[in-house]
Amino acid sequence: TEIYTLSLHDALPIWAFGDPDDVEVPADSGIPPGLSRDEVVRLGRLIAAGKVAAVGLWGPRHAGRDEAVLALAAQIGRPLRRLPLDRLAAANTDPETALGDALVTAAALGAVLQVPLDGLAETARERWETPLAHALARAPIPLLLTGRHPWRPAALLEALSYAELELPVPGFPARQGLWAEVFPDLDGAWTGDLATRYRLSRGEIRTIERVARTRAHLAGNGQPAPLTDYLDAACRTVTRRRSEEFAATVKPKSGPTDLVLPPALHRQVLEVASFFRAGARVEEGWGFGRRDRGNGLKALFTGDSGTGKTLAAEVIAGLLALPLLKVDLARVVSKWVGETEKNLESVFREAEESHSVLFFDEGDALFGKRGEVQHGTDRYANLEVSYLLQKLEEHAGLLILASNLKDQIDNAFIRRFQIALHFPRPAEPERRRIWQIAFPPAAPLDPQVDLDTLARLDLTGAGIVSIARTAALLAADAGNETISMPHLVQATARQYRRETRILAPAELGVWAGLLGEGA
Questions:
Q1: Cβ-count burial of 103 within 10 angstroms (0-12 exposed, 13-18 middle, 19+ buried)?
Q2: Whole-angstrom Cα distance, residue 450 to residue 435?
Q3: Is the pLDDT of residue 146 over 90?
Q4: What are the start-end ranges of the E strands in 177-284?
Q5: The pairing of beta strand 324-327 with beta strand 247-250
Q6: pLDDT band at residue 319 under the 50/70/90 scheme
Q7: Could you tell me which of 404, 388, 303 has the C-alpha nearest to residue 347?
Q8: pLDDT by residue (tens digit) across 46-65?
């Protein structure tokens, strides 16, 4: 019998023994734009000397919280570990036991412990916050608390010497500088446009650079393809977030030629995208936004259903190469006090994190006029409007609200929209163009179809598209080779009935006799 000896080193690669909570601290950790090197050096020395035991680093993710943590850990000169609150809470472990084990491990390694509080889900906070505060208050190691909003439990502040830094979102010049630092081969127009559309940290921009260069190498034939061809796709990959339950992410598929509007209105719709691109330079670079709490752009689209408001929002998002985040108002609005505000917070946070165009369709339920307080619930409804006004002011991205009735929108909201466009029902020239593009190139449309007669019918763009699709279904179901005028007349009659309108035979002219053929 032969005996073979196999060591663990031979059996498994070294990465199999990696610690997921251990964080590598690079020697050249960058410093986020909101901090100076002097601040990092001074605070790091105080932590190393034991004069500061806990530091709170508060601000949005793209303000550079993780970069600040790495810079401080490098200055202190100790290993860095991250407390996996999300993983511990998901495992349904006992908070006191799990936290105690994590702190003992960090202390044994002489590490600095990062506590990312945003990783603690809202549903787990009530169970974990109190044990977490008491456990951290007894921690024998330096703590770096990070999160979007400050967390200052009394137990921790009483037990430890505490300092905090609120990290601001980098302004337009600083963001453009970060893009230029990571992409030195891009000109100012490119870095300025990227800095306008995306508010990212240095680490995220570096990730985009790696993703874009990888895609350029894959697409090239021996030589990398132009990097700029893959920047937008890389940005979407890095910024994409899991869609929340209160909104749906729509990938824009329509372009300006798909949007049929009067020429002046069409130009103004496209200007929304142009204004957003120029907004950061005007508001931050030129100082026009110094009195505003947010530097975003808000647009209000009003008009009858089916006149192109939703399509316009999709076209704008496509021009900016950003996803469209369409809010599901049925899920956002809640009858329970305080729940609507929590849902709105999730919606605005997701739009900010994913750099999406935030779109409220038929938003009268949220943006409607405040009424007099006659019942107890009226006071809470007005509080929801006040909260939404606050979020509207603070939102730094592009927000579009579509409403059928402008008169139903609260005047306080109207004042906060920089752009207000009314979408009329299409006139005959627009209706004819819509009829022409309603049928895909592959659709077998009968050459005898009378588009002139159809264009005279008072229909919206959505109604015309619906009729074209219904007519195609009728033709296919009947086994016909083409979509002919009888199918279109039948489909038009059905559309009129859906709209509770009457299609008079006189409106169809010589085709009036087709109304009785299955309509």
A1: buried
A2: 10
A3: yes
A4: 247-250
A5: antiparallel
A6: very high
A7: 388
A8: 999 999 999 999 988 888 89
